[in-house]
Amino acid sequence: MSNFIVSARKYRPVRFDDVVGQEHVSQTLKNALKNEHLAHAFLFCGPRGVGKTTCARILAKVLNCQNVSADFEPCNECSSCKAFNANSSFNITELDAASNNSVEHIRALIEQVRFQPQQGKYKVFIIDEVHMLSQQAFNAFLKTLEEPPPYAIFILATTEKHKIIPTILSRCQIFDFRRIQVPEMVEHLQAICREENIEADKDALHIIGQKADGALRDALSIFDRIVAFSGNRISYEDVITNLNVLDYDYYFQIVDALLLEDSSKILLLFDTILRNGFEPDIFMNGLAEHLRNLLVCKDEATLQLLEVSDGLRARYLEQARLSPAGLLLTALNLANDCDVNYKLARNKRLHVEMALIKMAYIPRAFQLAGNGAAAFAPEKKTPELSTSTEPQEVSRQPATNNQKPQLPKTKTPEPEPEPQPQPEPEPQPQPKTLQKSGKQDTPKLMALEAMLAEVKAEEAHLLTQEVQELTQKRVEEAWNLYIEAQEQESVKVIMRNSELKLEGRNLAVTVTSALAENTIRQENSLMDYLREVLTAPEMTMTIEIDKSKAVEPPKRKRMLSSKEKYLAMRETNPNITELQKRFDLRPDE
After folding, report:
1. What does residue 164 show for φ and ψ, rounded to 5 degrees?
2. Of the options 1.10.40.30, 2.40.50.140, 3.10.450.540, 1.10.8.60, the CATH number for the domain spanning 182-242
3. Torsion of CA 550, 551, 554, 555, to 10 degrees
4. Residues whose CB is less than 8 angstroms from the CB of residue 465 and which lie 6 or more positions away in sequence, other chains included
5. Rg (CA), the chain
6. How many CB atoms lie within 10 A of CB 559?
């Protein structure tokens, strides 16, 4: 077998200028070397695979290089640089704090600090993953880190800066490494392809850069895997197949179907995606990212946030021009809600399909709001009031949100007017249906304006009703009607046993227990029903407990001890004493 070296090691930068995406760190270190303002302790922090340890090694090499270039880069030709490249330099010590995190390891490191360098000017100590050190190890390292010998340089690297104690942070010069952008990764991968004589599609390299999530080392590992799969020709299809990435074309087709309100096509595309082995949540996250990219393309100022190839960028711009911003925002909100509630859904597929169907009807919802759908709402007819003095039949059905028992109203009989011919009622307008592609779609929903108009009509109807005098008798009749409409027998019993007393516009209800009070208070529709039936919108109700009639719960009897039981038995039966003396029995204390 050949001695294959992975790209992350083979193409590891050996000069500051070769470090990708960290120009702010490289230039600062060069200026410090140029002005001889080099600190004795550095802390390199940032995400994984962005070049922290690489910059630490380059800095260590430059410090002991015998022929430093004019721009303060290592020569890689002197004995010190060659020893470092061969991992045989005694002036550079690397410690992995993830596996050497105890006090003994730090004490051994401090012992090495005491000895001066055998060759060169500085001894450099690189401690990787320094946040893994224990609290005792940090404390043992404090004094040496604050006042090291003039020839000692400490370079600490970590991915979790917040886990390092403040006393260590205050003794170091901190450099924050940033995530590497996709265009920078693509450029670096293209350079490697030219070096290795590999042909690669730019779209394929973009997918690799996006999958790496800001870490160049991850991008190089993915690149090696793709090369092993496809050979010297890397295509877009090979990358999405090997990385299990959903093709962009599916998302473009989904959005096109959304614009056409073609829910059938959307469901068929989603079924095809599932048949290809993709999980529904992965598809929904990808769709949300696609909608986000379309929103980014709506404004030239945010176009730079789109991290895709030039050919794909043109396709995004074309679809963004056809997609209204309101549709994209609403669909993105639905996709986010679907992703948040995905884990709680029992039927994952149905959960995603419902979100897709809602997205398909977004244009129609906008059309309803823009065209004034109040014209399609059915008219509400006001019921005629009965003028008969005879008692009306009372409905025995339970009261619901849409149907409440009505109290028969009485009024002074008036002479009956002569019968007049009644005009035939006009037919109510039916909701219209939209026609599209020869198919009949779902009827339009009532718009917000229509609902507000209906509420105002009901308020006007209540104001025009005849106001009758609020009496004790009418209140009791309404109360009894509400009782008859209840389903629970316990509620009926409690309300029947309550005493009513009308005091002006306030109804005082007296009950016999706290349970009865809570039961009546939980009847949320009771006051609304009384106000509506009695035509008394300002009516109030108070509930009080009659302590004189309150039923106290029975007191629990205390358990008797063995001695108390013996004394009670002796009082009722004197022979117990003779039995106790004869057998020398002693009741337990």
Report:
1. -90, 135
2. 1.10.8.60
3. 0
4. 385, 535
5. 42
6. 7
The predicted model gives 110-115 an average pLDDT of: 87
Specify whether the CB–CB gap between 352 and 280 falls below 8 A: yes
Which residues are paired to 127 by β-bridges?
95, 156
Quick one: 7-176 is in which CATH superfamily? P-loop containing nucleotide triphosphate hydrolases (3.40.50.300)
User: Which whole number is the average pLDDT over 577-589?
Assistant: 74
- Residue 498 sits at the vertex; the CA angle it makes with 495 and 503, to the nearest 5 degrees, is 115
Distance of CA 259 to the CA centre of its chain: 27
Which residue, 182, 231, 176, 232, is CA-closest to 203?
A: 182
| Confidence check: pLDDT of 335 > 90 | yes
Both tokens assigned to 85: 């490249």
Side by side, the strands of the sheet bearing 92-96 are: 92-96, 123-128, 152-158, 41-45, 173-176
* Tokens found for residue 308: 């895709």
Report in angstroms the alpha-carbon separations of 391 from 327, 388, 397, 468, 483: 57, 8, 18, 17, 18
- DSSP 8-state code for residue 548: T
- Structure letter (DSSP) for residue 151: T
Tokens standing for 315? 């396709």
The structure tokens listed for 310 are 């030039």
Q: Round to whole Å and give the CA distance between 334 and 238.
A: 32
What are the angstrom distances between the C-alpha of 503 and each of 143, 483, 509, 541, 573? Answer: 83, 21, 11, 10, 63
CA 223 – CA 469 distance, rounded (Å): 87
pLDDT single digits (tens) 216-253: 889 999 999 999 888 888 888 888 888 878 888 889 99
